[in-house]
């Protein structure tokens, strides 16, 4: 019986796809592990316990039907598994690669709690949709009857692209405006290829373009058109810009040459991977080759930076983080990958100053310790006066997170309301901003977050926008 193929977690051990050796993968920007072959994927999917309350789905922001597509995979019904996976996510193979499954679905797997090791959900998810692309099962966007209404989407990241797909399927004319020369946002320019190869992103973008979605690249709202001008051109507007303003660290020497922002560094590396001309990389400003590199921060962006520096041939790479390993926000899997590749983590440490003539040459480090818990219950770091030391540094990369840009000013729209954190203020039922017909979704509303939350927000806001557009069309018809 098909059901007998499941609940194999006692007899079958957890096994992720084999990673390439650390030495080999540190020499290129290819993904570090191959995808499963079919027998492995079927075997690992069959470990699912098919529990009555699937905590994996509960803790997935998209509430993917994980146990169901694991069962279909184990039964060899892979096309059905793909269709079910695709029903709730516009980018399942991307989530399979970059979601922190150890904090979400796999971290909440019931058999993980029982000591048998979680089902390898992310790797199976990646396998399902990669196979679907290879077999030609990924169909074009099914575009509904034309509504005669048009939508502007500002930002071509996960939230914007997801909303674009759903709104196009509703039959709306969709225009996506983005400041970069390629769509994808951080998927394209922020996340390194060893986590997400770029052809995986580009084939998704191409599929959207083939559906008739219009992409306006190199377009900056405020420079090429104000927000009010976009509102006049379109029936509704979605702001899905993400958050791009780097958080600063205020210590002496912060302005020295060689002290750089994480996103500048990652964008330069990704552009180089596309074959673009990148003068700041070629002149060494944004290239870690032969340098002692110090990265400040403990999130996923910091992990991307340290692992990129290794691949660029840095002489040494150290990561300073003010808390300990157990309290860092980045994925523990990423930390393990970085350590394997030669990154040294300096826990409970923070920069006190950057020594420089003109160019940075050393970081003075202040030791930290964990004090009393803050309002969230997390122990706050505080200086440890008995511990200071210096680290050599030819390049310092600041990966301290991101804040929203000042959109009302940038967009020439002072009536666009923001919160005290600078994120856009929305009605959380309708996802509309303070301006009629202008919606917002993704990080620009919730603050810097995960790609999977951007996809969820894009899905939710498209539903709200569709309702609003239908009501608008009905009202206009009555008025006529």
From TrEMBL:
<dbReference type="InterPro" id="IPR028261">
    <property type="entry name" value="DPD_II"/>
</dbReference>
<dbReference type="Pfam" id="PF07992">
    <property type="entry name" value="Pyr_redox_2"/>
</dbReference>
<dbReference type="InterPro" id="IPR036188">
    <property type="entry name" value="FAD/NAD-bd_sf"/>
</dbReference>
<keyword id="KW-0560">Oxidoreductase</keyword>
<keyword id="KW-0479">Metal-binding</keyword>
<keyword id="KW-0004">4Fe-4S</keyword>
<feature type="region of interest" description="Disordered">
    <location>
        <begin position="1"/>
        <end position="23"/>
    </location>
</feature>
<dbReference type="GO" id="GO:0016491">
    <property type="term" value="F:oxidoreductase activity"/>
</dbReference>
<keyword id="KW-0521">NADP</keyword>
<keyword id="KW-0408">Iron</keyword>
<keyword id="KW-0411">Iron-sulfur</keyword>
<dbReference type="GO" id="GO:0051539">
    <property type="term" value="F:4 iron, 4 sulfur cluster binding"/>
</dbReference>
<feature type="compositionally biased region" description="Basic and acidic residues">
    <location>
        <begin position="12"/>
        <end position="23"/>
    </location>
</feature>
<dbReference type="GO" id="GO:0046872">
    <property type="term" value="F:metal ion binding"/>
</dbReference>
<protein>
    <submittedName>
        <fullName>Glutamate synthase (NADPH) small subunit</fullName>
    </submittedName>
</protein>
<dbReference type="InterPro" id="IPR009051">
    <property type="entry name" value="Helical_ferredxn"/>
</dbReference>
<feature type="domain" description="FAD/NAD(P)-binding">
    <location>
        <begin position="150"/>
        <end position="453"/>
    </location>
</feature>
<dbReference type="InterPro" id="IPR006006">
    <property type="entry name" value="GltD-like"/>
</dbReference>
<dbReference type="Pfam" id="PF14691">
    <property type="entry name" value="Fer4_20"/>
</dbReference>
<dbReference type="InterPro" id="IPR023753">
    <property type="entry name" value="FAD/NAD-binding_dom"/>
</dbReference>
<feature type="domain" description="Dihydroprymidine dehydrogenase">
    <location>
        <begin position="25"/>
        <end position="136"/>
    </location>
</feature>
